Amino acid sequence: MALEHDRDADRHFLERLADAADRYTPLVALEPPEGFVLDITGCAHLFGGEAALRRDLLQRLAGAGLTARATIAGTPEAASALARYATCERVPPGGEAVAVAPLPVAALGLDPAVALALTRAGLKTIGDLAARPGDILAARFGALLATRLRRVTGREDTRLTPRRAVAACMVERRFAEPVGRREDLLGTLGLILGTAGTTLEERGEGGRLFEASFFRTDGVVRRIAVETGEATRDGAALIRLFAEKMHLLDDPTDPGFGFDLIRLAVLRTEAQIQRQAQFDGRGEADRETVALIDRLVARFGRDSVVRLVDRHSHIPERAEAMRPAIAVGATMAWPAMRAARPLTRPLQLFDPPQPIETLAEVPDGPPATFHWRRTTHQIARAEGPERIATEWWRDGESALTRDYYCLEDREGRRFWVFRQGLYGTETTAPRWFVHGLFA
Amino acid sequence: MTAHRDTLAALKGTLARLERGAMPSASPHFSLGPAEFDAALGGGLARAALHEVFAESPAHGPAATGFALGLALRAAPSAPVVWVRQRMLDQEFGRPYGHGIAALGLDPGRLVLVRAKDAEAVLKATHDAARCGAVGVVLAEIWGAPKVLDLTASRRLSLAAAESGVTLIATRTAAEPAASAALSRWQVRAMASEAAEAGLPGLPAFLVTLLRHRAGIPQRDWPMEWDREHRRFRQRAALPRRLDALPGDRAATPQAPALPFRRAG
User: Which CATH number is B216's domain given?
Assistant: First the structure.
């Protein structure tokens, strides 16, 4: 059987492997199509040394049914070249130049045309290249070759660009035996939160965005993020927010693997200001409201808990926006209310406006009746028009002017309707819409 | 040392009492506005309780929402208001519009809107918010009569409200009143407004029926209008001013002024 090569699936699989490799170090970078690089500087001792870390990684990959090659070297480029073109477990510090010397020039990862040109010039191995003066090579084959050569031979070190942002504060806990019970996981997470809280406190900071990563023994990584409206390091409150979302760990296809590593990353921190208690209890009440919003967000999602924000536009549907409450904070300025006589704006607004059929006097009389949702409304009172011109800088010159009317039907129901287009000058058959309902 | 501590505790207690006294929400009842309404309700509506507002029919949903917002403004003049709304209501009636909310007298800045995907989510969010004492009012809007909204659910909400002191107002559209633990139950329909000058639409008017009250207040109709300048309800004349046509074949007969005399002999 032959199957089409599915690049996306390959890429996706590689991403998953890289996720799982997160357990060794937060600095993981992809090298598509088939590789990834880990920066294990300062991490290796946690796994019993570099050799043991490599063994553990290969063992896990073999457990997933993969044949993998891995090399530990001083620079990402050297490690990548050696893993692909040689069998080398580990390069002793400073030994990169010797180790890569016998590799073919293709190991530099250059454009095939350049590699071919080098081979034709009789420069077959990296060792051949390294023996030549760098500036001559750069002049003939481009600066990239010289840079690559320096990096592969360990003469220049580079930092890799990790896939995931490195957190300001990171705490993790490993289990000797995999843990599956949610209570145990939460308990451990609570301990980790305590440690992270202490670290943050020393810096005078609090976190706004926390992410817990749960590494399952079969390589699956589940991440749960919790956001707060104010900088905090209150472990008890945070653990309640995490508890709301622990169901994300559920996996119907999980035959009972446990988690053997939990890592907490504080992805966003802010200076946390110690506020003095106010006598009227206002500060306390505000904090309670913020905590309530955090709880609701953890439960229903960021976009489900919103505040209305004034947007300074005279086009009704653009005059305000719904913003996540967690992002806009507790105090938001709305222009002072004008208690003008007519109720000029409806309580609820249709987005988009709903088309209606009307019977109205030309050119700019209010409708006498209109038909909407299989009901004909007889208008008893009407007010208008309120003319709202379009924003030509957004909608273009040809956008139609709207004339708004506030209508009340015989039963007392009120509608905000508009006619799109000025009769005669802009259009001959203007369309009507109901845009909102008054209380 | 202990004497100091006792003094401190006593002072703190005094302060706490003063604070509570200073806050307008200290009273267990809120007034609707007109003294007549409050007297009929036995001194206003209870704050720490669940109240239900039914739209008479789906067409009167916006009126019910408006009435509920009016109640919310009466119950909490300055505290945060959490408005939990089932998402499908946005398709039916449009999304809550800040400028219109402001036009009724509620500052949108103190509004937190929760957009719930179904009735169950509305109940959960309402319950969460009802337990937070810093919130003034929780408005819950549910479409239809879902199974999850039963006597037990309303009892849980009532208990949460009683504990925290938060006022809960549940607005129901396309639903028939059923057994619930709510303290009061209202039915609302829109009513022709009392015309402002030149026959323009006036203040929003509702025909409100008190269907049921735990204290056994008899059922009755109240024509009301919302005075947004003073943020209070007002009595609306029982019948809308004449909208019916005058007879065309006769001259309109002006009523003879009632004289303080009686025709004699």
Answer: 3.40.50.300
Check A343 against B201: CB less than 8 A apart.
Answer: yes
Domain count, chain B: 1
**Tokens standing for A36?**
């990834």
- Per-residue pLDDT at B184: 94
- Identify the bridge partners of residue A38 per DSSP, sorted by sequence position: A28
- Structural domain contains residue B241: no
Would B81 be classed as within a structural domain? yes
pLDDT of residue A408: 92
Q: Is residue B246 part of a domain?
A: no
Kindly state whether B205 is in contact with chain A, defined as any CB-CB distance less than 8 angstroms.
yes
Supply the pTM of this predicted model: 0.77
Measured between beta carbons, the chain A residues lying within 8 angstroms of B96 are 308, 347-349
The interface predicted TM-score of the complex, written ipTM, equals 0.79
Note which residues in 74-113 of chain B have CB less than 8 A from chain A: 79-80, 82, 93-105, 107-109, 111-113
Burial (CB count <10 Å: 0-12, 13-18, 19+), residue B5: exposed
For residues A86 and A99, the answer to whether their CB atoms sit within 8 Å is yes
Cβ contact B80–A289 (<8 Å): yes
Q: Is residue B260 part of a domain?
A: no
Q: What are phi and psi of B54, to 5 degrees?
A: -105, 140
For A141-184, write each residue's pLDDT tens digit. 888 888 888 888 888 888 888 888 888 888 989 898 998 888 99
Q: Which domain holds residue B30?
A: 26-235
Q: What is the pLDDT of residues A71-122, one digit of tens each?
A: 999 899 899 999 999 888 889 888 888 899 899 988 888 888 888 888 888 8
Distance CA B22, CA B230 (A): 21
